[in-house]
Each structure stands twice: as structure tokens, then as C-alpha cells.
Amino acid sequence: MKKKLPFRAWYYFRVGYVQYFTFILALANMFTITYYLVITHDPSLKIVFPSFSAYVVISTLIGIPLLVLVGFVHLKRSHAFTSEMDISVESNPYNYKLYPGILRECMAPLYLELLILGRKSLSDEKMTEEEIEKLEILQKKLDFISQGGSLQTLNAKNKTL
Q: How far apart are CA 91 and CA 94, in angstroms?
């Protein structure tokens, strides 16, 4: 975990910077520049936007629905988003591995046990005590997470699982 900490911190920094700080700064910059460089020098626009605050309010009332529509079209109607997802899927290492957590600790072992049980059932073999114990552990884990629990808390509480 200590080796990953600088990379995780760098990722969190980039997300915070891009998603919040830069967004707010760019929005304030856009409002200020467009108002003071364009609107104050055009008398016809000065009638529509008599003050900076009026410009911000009117632009926000028009801009938010318009940008929501543009975002919807980008996600639902254009090929741009599907191309982005294709690239993301191709570059994600977990597409060919099990994700840590429920898939690795519960579902994959459950599928394996079901496969073993199916094979034994078809060949009329009996289950061993070890196999029965494995199934009971999987049952407890699945029951716990189906009730909203977390595998991390379950593993921390009960090291035997």
C-alpha cells in the first residue's frame, strides 16, 4: 500500500484539480472575460445584460439546460462516448482478471464449488467435510454481503473466513 500511496495521491490531486478547482476557475474566467471584453463594448448586448450579475444569472439559466442536453447527446446519441468506453475497456487490466472483493472472494469460489458439486453429483461421489465447510463459509459471506455488509469488515471481524 505504501508503494501505491504517491500514485493514489497524484490521482486524487488530478481529479480534485480538474473536476473542481479548474472547473470553477474556468467558469469564473469565462464569465468575466466574455462580459468585460464583449458585452461592455457592444451597446445592443449591454441592453440585454445591464450588469455582470444579470449576465451570470441569464447565462446560467440558459447554459445549464443547454449543457445538460449536450451531455445527454454525448452519452446517449453520439459515437464519441462509445469510443471512449471502448478505449477504457481495452486499457483496463481487470477485464481479464477478477476484480478484488466480492467477485474474487465470493463469486469465483462459489462458481468453482458449484462446478465441483455438479461433477460429483453426476458421478455419484459424496462431499468431503472440507468441501462442506468451504460451502458454509461462502454461504456466510454471501449472506453477509446480501444484507449490505462489506467483505472488508467481515474479514476484519472474523479472520477464519
A: 9
